[in-house]
Design brief:
This protein has about 475 residues and is of the alpha+beta class. It contains six helices and 25 strands. Strand 16 and strand 17 form a beta hairpin. The relative contact order is 0.12. The protein binds beta-D-galactopyranose (GAL).
Length: about 475
Amino acid sequence: MEQKLGMRNKYRKSTTLRCSAWSRCSLPVALWIMVGCLLLLLLYSLLPQWDSFSLETQLQVSKHLHELEQAEEEIIQMPPPRKRSPRAEKRKPKKETTIIDEFLDESSQLRHIFFPDIKTAVDPNKVNESFYYYPGRIWLDTEGNPIQAHGGGILYDELSRTYYWYGEYKDGPTYIANENGLARVDIIGVGCYSSKDLWAWKNEGIVLAAEETNETHDLHKSNVLERPKVLYNKKTGKYVMWMHIDNANYTKARVGVAISDYPNGPFYYLYSKNPHSFDSRDMTLFKDDDDVAYLIYSAVENSELHIGPLTEDYLDVTDTVKPILIGQHREAPALLKHESTYYMITSGCTGWAPNEALAHASESIMGPWETLGNPCIGGSKIFRETTFFSQGTFVLPLQGLAGYFILMADRWKPANLRDSRYVWLPLRVVGAADQPLELDFGFPRWSRLSIYWHKRWRLPYRWNG
Ligand code: GAL
């Protein structure tokens, strides 16, 4: 009994002790809880505002996006030089081959690295690999056929809440055009694919087809139709397509315009022209927040880019035009906007062979544009110097994820253009643009634009555009 009492007493005593300890430390604890809450609030306010996501999802998304910004290495080992007979060596001493030579060489032992075979294809019907992008692999549509939308661009159709991907449908034989020795595929038309998630693409068919018989028509199959881009015009309710129109030796150098009532066509071809009376080759469109659309094209034998607004109906250019990046020989322009700054990715002019991308920035779309440098991160030096063995074509903003974009690029295969691959990678503009300093100490004024190499990556879970 005594023992029991003693136990009870002991128990009581300890309770009293805890209570007094609690009252003694309750103030600091409360303070820490408050600090914790404040920190959580601060963290919450720092996260991009994804209204439809819970805090937990936002933290997961944030972690995922952070992972996408980690540099991922990929080293390619050059194969040992092929054995040649001493006679052949004497006749023509072999110059050292580069990785780019290997990339372009059909019989290279490295071929499978640049152009993995069909067994590795990204297939929307294989659910265990859902939503993963594998830059460079064959990408199948929902019917199991390789997607044909090269040099393409994406339109998000707000009316149907669907993405439409338009590009060159190149599923024909590659041959060398006599005029210039360049590999080509006859025009087949503009392919169109639709998707709700940017990963599983349904073939919507050829929305603008080649002309089979009339040889004088711009779209006659013997000509060139490249880099189609589509915008929706709110005022007219029409879908307007612009594209590079050329002849087989690229001396016509025009832009073409087509129109449709629906995003999935058919598009009706209207006309082609030399915009502002200039030659025009690689081109793109960009629609600004105020719905003014711009045409950007390589001009004066690709030595400079031109930029100018379209008319209100998007069916023509206006008289306003500015030459930019003069003398810099850039092509394959792709534009984006972040926090009122305009950015542009361009490539050098080396035909189907890959080269180094550059990023440019401007406070006004009409310029002056400043060159920031090579935006590629990760892979290896040669990956970065070749835009991951590809050439940009379009930059897609990720809705609800301010500052995050996808770079769409083409890994051209001049030996068989229909088997050219897509390289989609995360692109980020980091932080608010630095304000120009009152005294210019030469600090960069722009946020960095970065494109991150990943062998395999995906958009955050539950991102649903
Ligand atoms: C590239 C251009 C491509 C295609 C190719 C033909 O410079 O970006 O769109 O025209 O040349 O060689």
